[in-house]
């Protein structure tokens, strides 16, 4: 069996080599010729899996080791009888932690506490749902907009316009869709952006085109009260340098790039392929996941909850580093910028999730322990 895979899939050989010959290629340039005699394609989000790409191949299965699958023509795969799997939720924790770290940095910079703000989550699925629960556990007032959800106790669901009117922080966590009853392409256009409350923090860690980037640029030119965090950009890997300059935090589509999230994505697609082939899954995620570089923090009784959370979060992930690297794009010509965007993603430094850090907070106040636990850090009892 021949398996063609994106070269940026961590542990792709460790997972798939037991099932066939694995050929790795740069994801953006995988073409129909590469797939002519392939049985399986294992992709990430940068490979446009269109009808044209797959229709003349002998592919039996396509997997994408990502949560989003707007790059895949699932209908064409179904019609052609090609099996498909994505990796739902694989990197949801990673995105949640990205958002929490961004908010921690902005709150410190601007002198407020997130607990005093109302946060609106657009798209309460794997990412949005986890973010909703984490923020609620921190005592933040959270509301959500998701037209596909049924009412649920403890969750205030509102329309998008109401969410925009009421929220100080808005996180976008929908898929990118252009069809159906509630398409998300340009969900936030000029009128929604102009309607944002004074001082709103807008975070897009879903897909770039959920926000009309041209409208955002024009609104940011006239509204310096807004704070914007963009992980995703319309027309990636082309990033508009004018927009990058005006956002408060800009990163190269790495919100979901914790090593844990990426490995989970690889393993989920490996397991889906094994099920498809009717074979036992012999590779286990536990065996593949390395130890984190930082394993333990120990807080004394003098630390307060704000200090403890900032220290623990920044020890695990300091988003300012990604923002600083991204700003190097500002000095580049368009082609170099495109290449650098992909280079940063391919060579992304190892980032681990909060749960990999054990924190001994037994000597600290109850409030410290509760806050760290709400964020998902590992607080062993002994
Ligand atoms: N920046 C990054 O690295 C990452 C980005 N993503 C993106 O985030 C998206 C969301 O991820 P998940 O939570 O895992 O997906 P999910 O499918 O679990 O959740 C998406 C939610 O959005 C809701 N939704 C759909 N259309 C909507 C609309 N018009 N208005 C409001 N809500 C709407 C759905 O009902 C669903 O509850 C993915 O599709 C992907 O595009 C996901 C992981 C990493
Ligand atoms: O899982 C998703 O959806 C994402 O957005 C991924 O983090 C994208 O990563 P790449 O597939 O572009 O490496």
Description of the molecule:
This protein is α/β, with parallel strands linked by helices and 382 residues long. It folds into 3 domains: 2-86 and 258-288, NAD(P)-binding Rossmann-like Domain (Rossmann fold), CATH 3.40.50; 92-250, NAD(P)-binding Rossmann-like Domain (Rossmann fold, 3-Layer(aba) Sandwich), CATH 3.40.50; 296-375, Ribosomal Protein S8, Chain: A, domain 1. 38% of the residues lie in helices and 13% in strands. The protein is built from 16 helices and 13 strands. It has helices at 12-16, 32-35, 51-54, 74-79, 92-110, 126-137, 160-166, 190-195, 213-222, 241-246, 259-277, 285-288, 305-316, 319-326, 334-346, 366-375; strands at residues 2-6, 21-25, 40-43, 61-64, 83-85, 118-122, 141-145, 169-172, 201-204, 227-230, 249-250, 296-298, 358-360. The strands form 3 sheets. A 6-stranded parallel sheet has the order 7-6-8-9-10-11, sandwiched between helices. Strands 2-1-3-4-5 form a 5-stranded parallel sheet. Strand 6 (118-122), helix 6 and strand 7 (141-145) form a beta-alpha-beta unit. Helix 5 (92-110) packs across helix 6 (126-137) and helix 13 (305-316) runs parallel beside helix 16 (366-375). The radius of gyration is 21 Å and the shape is globular. The termini are far apart. The model has no long low-confidence stretch (mean pLDDT 97). The ligand O=C(O)C(=O)[C@H](O)COP(=O)(O)O binds at residues 8, 44-46, 66-68, 91, 253, 256-257. Keywords: Cytoplasm, NAD, Oxidoreductase, Pyridoxine biosynthesis. Catalyzes the oxidation of erythronate-4-phosphate to 3-hydroxy-2-oxo-4-phosphonooxybutanoate.
């Amino acid at each position: 069996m021949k398996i063609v895979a994106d070269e940026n899939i961590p542990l792709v050989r460790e997972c798939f080599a037991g099932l066939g010959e694995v050929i790795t290629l740069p994801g953006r340039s995988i073409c129909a010729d590469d797939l002519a005699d392939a049985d399986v394609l294992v992709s990430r989000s940068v490979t446009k899996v269109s009808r044209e790409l797959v229709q003349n191949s002998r592919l039996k299965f396509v997997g994408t080791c990502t949560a989003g699958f707007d790059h895949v023509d699932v209908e064409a795969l179904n019609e052609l009888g090609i099996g498909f799997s994505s990796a739902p939720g694989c990197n949801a924790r990673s995105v949640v932690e990205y958002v929490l770290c961004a908010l921690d940095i902005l709150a410190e910079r601007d002198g407020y506490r997130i607990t005093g703000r109302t946060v609106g989550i657009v798209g309460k699925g794997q990412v949005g749902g986890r973010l909703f629960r984490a923020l609620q556990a921190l005592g933040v007032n959270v509301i959500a907009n998701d037209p596909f959800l049924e009412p649920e106790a403890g969750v205030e669901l509102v329309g998008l316009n109401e969410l925009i009117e009421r929220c100080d922080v808005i996180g976008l966590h929908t898929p990118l869709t252009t069809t159906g009853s509630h398409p998300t392409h340009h969900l936030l256009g000029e009128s929604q952006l102009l309607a944002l409350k004074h001082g709103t923090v807008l975070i897009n860690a879903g897909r770039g085109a959920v926000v009309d980037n041209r409208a955002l640029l024009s609104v940011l030119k006239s509204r310096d009260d807004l704070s914007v965090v963009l992980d995703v950009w319309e027309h990636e890997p082309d990033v508009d340098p004018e927009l990058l300059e005006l956002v408060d935090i800009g990163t190269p589509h790495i919100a979901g790039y914790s090593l844990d999230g990426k490995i989970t994505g690889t393993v989920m697609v490996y397991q889906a392929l094994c099920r498809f082939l009717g074979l036992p899954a012999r590779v286990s995620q536990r065996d593949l996941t390395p130890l984190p570089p930082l394993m333990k923090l120990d807080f004394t009784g003098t630390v307060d909850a704000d200090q403890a959370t900032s220290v623990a979060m920044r020890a695990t992930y300091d988003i300012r580093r990604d923002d600083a690297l991204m700003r190097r794009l500002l000095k580049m010509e368009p082609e170099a910028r495109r290449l650098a965007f992909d280079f940063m993603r391919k060579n992304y430094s190892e980032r681990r999730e909060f749960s990999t850090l054990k924190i001994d907070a037994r000597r600290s106040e109850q409030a410290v322990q509760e806050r760290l636990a709400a964020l998902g850090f590992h607080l062993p009892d002994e």
